[in-house]
């Protein structure tokens, strides 16, 4: 409750309907031109906290472009994107990631030569502070919690003494922030790999993973940055029906973990099955915004996107 | 014939991987003993007298150079290769002007440490000091590191926004600019005449120096190898941290890394600065040991040689690039009878290595897998 009121205080321009949830992201009259080509024409919509929003439209409608504007890849010609009351437009991608927006890519863009675990750890690193001095000289000592101290486990007497020395040193001087962050990153990354269901492949190089696992890995990497809003760009592309079903479950689980989800998707059944609300774009213009049911009955949407045979799609 | 060579190569590669796997599977204390033994061997190398291995010494052939001297050269090239590996192998920024940083390190000890340098003479006049006064050698170490690091930042700040080939061209220019400035700025650097009497740990070179003299080069090698080991330790720490992961991520996909919250510019600048500092440190050792430098020692060919060390050894793998550096520094010395044709032999060897082993002699294991995959893809598409 206090959160909502603070948002109102910061952002009075957002109209609040009774019963409506807090607005997390607002795309406000965004226009994007590339030379003479209008990629986005006066697009406005909102994403509420805790919902799954679908963004659909025919090929070239500007869905990925909208994504790119939201994640700082493109700067809008006019209009702006606000996230959590703060301006997104004009910030650099790393900053936007720190604000709490993360995304996956339509054509998978993992770090191919790094292992699955390392890929996810790059995501967790964005919340960490260690840089060259910290890693090199192990500066910034932190007093560790009892369970973080080095354990004395060995049976070999000499090693036992060594471990005891390390434990005592850690008790007296503390552990470096680098060590603690590194451990936290590894733990969280493994947990995320487990969440998306590919923990068995943690040490495999990303490029060697099967296609479906690469998609899952991208989601895990995006979640590792602790986003408030997760944008999935056609996550089901190239999936068979069984895999799509699993993906649906995964998306719901992601929402249940407290992330808001924006979903771009072609597969109508997937969109209709999982989303709370759908925004439809055509030629860079928004033509509909509403619940999946309303949208699929909207004649403009049927004409523009679904064609004649709604059921077949 | 080619098939046979490839088959041998495949078997050798399998054996190498086996060694690496077995090594990784050993308990930590055994690995520690292994590393300690290897380090002890490195320190023993200049005294090498084990029967059956003495043929390795460069002074075992007619007119061969001092063995310790060659080892010293190998050591400073290893330092260069480790530094360049951070820039090229880890962060994926092609730097063709690395000699510039090497030269800056060398000139910092020459300009501030030698009584013959115009800079020191100017300081003596201005601050009314004795004619024997110069900045102490030990103070020149941080000075050389600081100056090369700063030059890395100054070069990197505007140019790291460039990518790929463009960056390579700019850095190539930088290396040449440093050399040409050193040659033409006669009032500061003595120009083409060079600077002599560059100090070592015991001060200016003279016959009275007991340890770091001009004849016995073993102490110089021991000094250099100590610096190398320290730097290997430091760079390892960086590799296995958030910094190292960020470098790899930038090398793999800079845009995706940015979206995942990696501040690409910051980490690229760090890679450049660290690489520059290591190059500078190496140049510093080179100048101290040589006691005399002039601009002709820092031409662009050396930059190419440095990149060749990294590429031949195995870009991205510290052991690999160190091996590459030793090989490229040592072979021409040991096989002096081909020294007249050495650039021809060199070019030929490079081509052979690149055909048979494009990922380098001891590649980073990830990189090896990537290149093998690519080879497979290429076959399928044809």
Automatic annotation (TrEMBL), chain A:
Keywords: ATP-binding, Nucleotide-binding, Transport. It holds the Pfam family BCA_ABC_TP_C. Gene3D superfamilies: P-loop containing nucleotide triphosphate hydrolases. Residues 1-20 are annotated as: Disordered. It comes from the Bacteria. GO terms for molecular function: ATP binding. Residues 25-308 form the ABC transporter domain. PROSITE patterns: ABC_TRANSPORTER_2. InterPro entries: AAA+_ATPase (IPR003593), ABC_AA/LPS_Transport (IPR051120), ABC_transporter-like_ATP-bd (IPR003439), BCA_ABC_TP_C (IPR032823), P-loop_NTPase (IPR027417). PANTHER family: AMINO ACID ABC TRANSPORTER ATP-BINDING PROTEIN, CONSERVED COMPONENT OF ABC TRANSPORTER FOR NATURAL AMINO ACIDS-RELATED. This is ABC transporter ATP-binding protein. It comes from Plantactinospora endophytica. The lineage of its organism: Bacteria, Bacillati, Actinomycetota, Actinomycetes, Micromonosporales.
From TrEMBL, chain B:
Pfam families: BPD_transp_2. Keywords: Cell membrane, Membrane, Transmembrane, Transmembrane helix. It is found in: Cell membrane. It is a multi-pass membrane protein. The chain crosses the membrane at residues 32-55, 67-89, 96-114, 134-157, 220-238, 269-288, 300-331, 343-362. InterPro entries: ABC_transp_permease, LivM-like. Its main location: membrane. This is Branched-chain amino acid ABC transporter permease. It comes from Plantactinospora endophytica.
């Amino acid at each position: 409750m206090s959160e909502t009121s603070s948002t109102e205080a910061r952002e009075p321009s957002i109209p609040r309907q009774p019963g409506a949830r807090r607005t997390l992201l607002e795309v406000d009259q965004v226009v994007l031109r590339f030379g003479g080509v209008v990629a986005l024409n006066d697009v406005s919509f909102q994403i509420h906290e805790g919902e799954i929003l679908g963004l659909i439209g025919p090929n070239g409608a500007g869905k990925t472009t909208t994504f790119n504007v939201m994640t700082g890849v493109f700067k809008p010609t006019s209009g702006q994107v606000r996230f959590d009351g703060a301006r997104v437009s004009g910030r650099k991608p790393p900053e936007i990631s720190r604000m709490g927006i993360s995304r996956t890519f339509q054509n998978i863009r993992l770090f191919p030569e790094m292992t699955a675990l390392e890929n996810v750890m790059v995501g967790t690193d964005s919340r960490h502070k260690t840089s060259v001095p910290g890693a090199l000289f192990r500066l910034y000592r932190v007093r560790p919690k009892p369970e973080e101290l080095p354990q004395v486990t060995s049976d070999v007497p000499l090693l036992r003494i060594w471990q005891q020395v390390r434990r005592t040193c850690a008790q007296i001087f503390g552990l470096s922030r680098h060590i603690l962050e590194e451990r936290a990153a590894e733990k969280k990354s493994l947990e995320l790999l487990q969440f998306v269901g590919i923990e068995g492949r943690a040490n495999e190089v990303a490029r060697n993973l099967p296609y479906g696992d690469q998609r899952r890995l991208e989601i895990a990497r995006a979640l590792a940055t602790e986003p408030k809003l997760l944008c999935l760009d056609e996550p089901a592309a190239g999936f068979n029906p069984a895999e799509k079903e699993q993906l649906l479950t995964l998306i719901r689980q992601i929402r249940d973990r407290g992330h808001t989800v924006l979903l771009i998707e072609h597969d109508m059944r997937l969109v209709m099955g999982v989303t709370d609300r759908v925004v439809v774009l055509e030629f860079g213009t928004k033509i509909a915004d509403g619940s999946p049911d309303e949208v699929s009955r909207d004649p403009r949407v049927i004409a523009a996107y679904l064609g004649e045979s709604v059921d077949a799609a | 014939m080619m098939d046979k060579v490839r088959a041998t190569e495949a078997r050798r590669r399998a054996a190498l991987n086996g060694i690496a796997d077995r090594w990784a599977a050993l308990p930590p204390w055994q690995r520690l003993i292994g590393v300690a033994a290897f380090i002890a061997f490195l320190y023993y190398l200049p005294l090498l007298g084990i029967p059956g291995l003495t043929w390795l010494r460069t002074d075992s052939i007619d007119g061969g150079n001092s063995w310790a001297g060659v080892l010293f050269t190998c050591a400073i090239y290893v330092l260069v290769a480790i530094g360049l590996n951070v820039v090229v192998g880890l962060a994926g920024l092609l730097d063709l002007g690395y000699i510039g940083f090497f030269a800056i390190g060398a000139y910092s000890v020459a300009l501030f440490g030698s009584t013959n340098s115009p800079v020191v003479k100017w300081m003596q006049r201005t601050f009314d000091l004795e004619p024997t006064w110069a900045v102490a050698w030990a103070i020149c170490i941080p000075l050389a590191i600081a100056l090369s690091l700063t030059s890395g930042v100054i070069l990197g700040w505007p140019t790291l926004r460039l990518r790929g080939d463009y960056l390579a061209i700019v850095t190539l220019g930088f290396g040449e600019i440093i050399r040409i400035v050193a040659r033409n700025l006669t009032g500061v650097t003595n120009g083409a005449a060079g600077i002599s009497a560059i100090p070592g740990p015991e001060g200016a070179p003279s016959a009275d120096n007991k340890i770091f003299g001009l004849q016995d080069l073993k102490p110089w090698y021991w000094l250099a190898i100590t610096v190398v080991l320290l730097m290997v330790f430091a760079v390892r720490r960086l590799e296995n941290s958030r910094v190292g992961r960020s470098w790899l991520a930038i090398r793999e996909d800079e845009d995706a890394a940015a979206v995942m919250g990696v501040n690409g510019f910051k980490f690229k600048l760090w890679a450049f600065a660290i690489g520059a500092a290591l190059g500078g440190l190496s140049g510093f050792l080179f100048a101290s040991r040589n006691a005399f430098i002039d601009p002709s020692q820092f031409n662009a060919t050396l930059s190419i040689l440095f990149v060749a060390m990294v590429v031949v050894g195995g870009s991205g793998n510290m052991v690999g690039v160190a091996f590459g550096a030793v090989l490229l520094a040592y072979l021409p010395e040991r096989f002096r009878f081909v020294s007249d044709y050495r650039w021809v032999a060199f070019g030929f060897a490079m081509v052979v290595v690149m055909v048979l082993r494009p990922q380098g002699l001891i590649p980073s294991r990830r990189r090896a897998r990537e290149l093998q995959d690519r080879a497979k893809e290429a076959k399928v598409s044809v």
